[in-house]
Amino acid sequence: MRSSLSIYCLWLIPLVKAFQTNVKTKCSSRMARPTAISHSFHDADDDDIFYNKSPTEQTYRVGDSGNTNHAQSHFFSRNSLASFAADKPLFRKLCRDAGITRPSKIQNLAWPVLFQGKNAIIADQTGSGKTLAYLLPLLNRSFNSKASPAIIVLAPTAELADQIKVVCDKLTVPSVVLTATGQYATNIRDQIRMLQQKKSYDVLISTPGRIATILRTRQAGLDLSRVQAVVLDEVDILLVDETFGPQLRTLGAALQTTPQFVFVTATLPNSVIETVQREFPDVQVVKGPGLHRVAMTVEERLIDVSVPPQYNRDPKYCFEVKAKELMAALRKNRCRRTLIFCNTVESCRQVENLLKRKDRSERVNKIYTYHGAMTPEARRENLAEFVRQEQDIDSLLICTDRAARGVDFAASPVDHVVIFDFPKDPAEYIRRVGRTARAGRKGTTTVLAYGWQLPIARGIMQSGQLNDQDLEKFTEDDKDGSESLEYRAVNRKRTVRKKKGVTGQESMREHIAGGKLWGDSSRP
């Protein structure tokens, strides 16, 4: 007989389809801030009052409070750890291992909900401490359990799974990562062998595809009969993925109990809330004060790169204008680490070629790339070099939105973010900017925009957040004709020539590693 939970988990199949349809038909409401909040605390209300004040009033309020550390005061909660489970030895140990002396705002808001075992949506800006916000209460709840694993965390990308693993390691919590790529990835046979030999672990971290594949394998050694909590990290991305529904159905069939469900996101469209609430009417919505807001410690600079109308359809001319402003911004903002965001692989390569031509010996900047046309190994190597760069030379990482999700630069903070291509999705604007000024630190963002993009960027910068009016301007009707040229996807025919004695797969890997897969004519 199929377990009650396996039937229970089938909710996501129709909901994923409904969500995807809703997203396509209601583009203008994709990131509208929800009006109904199921759960609120004094900290969140207090910050709403603060953010609604003018910059002058904000400065006065902070100065009047006697708090000299503006950034830290709006990252950390005013409550202490004593208001949590401070009497529990495990809690004290976890906080000590993670170096936590004071909870962040979202950690303070999430604790009472998750510790009571309630289903919840946890939403706050990037860099706000969401991973610890759900791990701390869930681990404390499952402390007396002999289940292995007690917690399953599903992540849309291997990069995010790796980041969650790092947090578990800091907490000295036994954990296992199951991904096809990434830092902890191995082939599926080795992963099955590891699961069979692993005696006890608390947290299982995986992408939906890999855990579904392993569960369909006989004698995989993965027993999920006593799982107490299932976390869907970056749930807004998981719901858009058409393959996610069937993968979760496979997971649901392996579960024998009704676990606590936690949905985590940095952006909270109304469609996500509606989708989850249809199956979980009692779900608690916990919103951090920074949701859909740019961090207060970010200094934003907007550069107009508009061109005369006659050049709107000349991609070369448009790129030259943006390239000139990019070089000026890099000269003006000399800092240790800079991220340059592009919308496509083609655009990444154009920027890479530009910077390397300007500094062939890399005496001024060390240039790295990070995008989907690279092998996972090449991405990991470039990211590691970018993070540990300790020479007296600035590092630049040219990337797509892959680096805006699941890559944590906490150990080596990013000082400057350049949005070279204005994002096509409003959620990505917040995510890109959120790569700097994390955990209360300071940072700078330079935004290159033109035409229809300018009023949107100005509106976000002036208000410090995305609102319904901004979202409506991201619809196709408001974009000019030049957008399709600048942001078109790379649809060129793949031209891969095989070498003698080399298999097609090996040849493909070589071309990917060398950046030649797409036949980019702009490469020198």
TrEMBL record:
InterPro entries in the cross-refs: DEAD/DEAH_box_helicase_dom (IPR011545), DEAD/DEAH_RhlB (IPR044742), Helicase_ATP-bd (IPR014001), Helicase_C-like (IPR001650), P-loop_NTPase (IPR027417)
Q: Which organism is it from?
A: Fistulifera solaris (Oleaginous diatom)
Domain named Helicase C-terminal is located at: 322-482
Q: Which PANTHER family match?
A: DEAD-BOX ATP-DEPENDENT RNA HELICASE 50
Enumerate the CDD domains for this protein.
DEADc (cd00268), SF2_C_DEAD (cd18787)
| Span of the signal peptide | 1-18
Which parts of this chain are annotated as the region Disordered? 496-524
Q: Name one Pfam family in it.
A: DEAD
Q: Which residues form the Helicase ATP-binding domain?
A: 111-286
What is the phylogenetic placement of the source species in the record? Eukaryota, Sar, Stramenopiles, Ochrophyta, Bacillariophyta
Matching entries from SMART domains are given as:
DEXDc, HELICc
Q: Name one GO molecular function term.
A: RNA helicase activity
Enzyme Commission number, as recorded: 3.6.4.13
Protein name as catalogued: ATP-dependent RNA helicase DDX18/HAS1
Provide this UniProt record's keywords sorted from A to Z: ATP-binding, Helicase, Hydrolase, Nucleotide-binding, Signal
Please tell me whether the keyword Cell inner membrane is annotated for this protein: no
Query: Would you say which domain of life the source belongs to?
Result: Eukaryota
Looking at the keywords, is Nucleotide-binding present?
yes
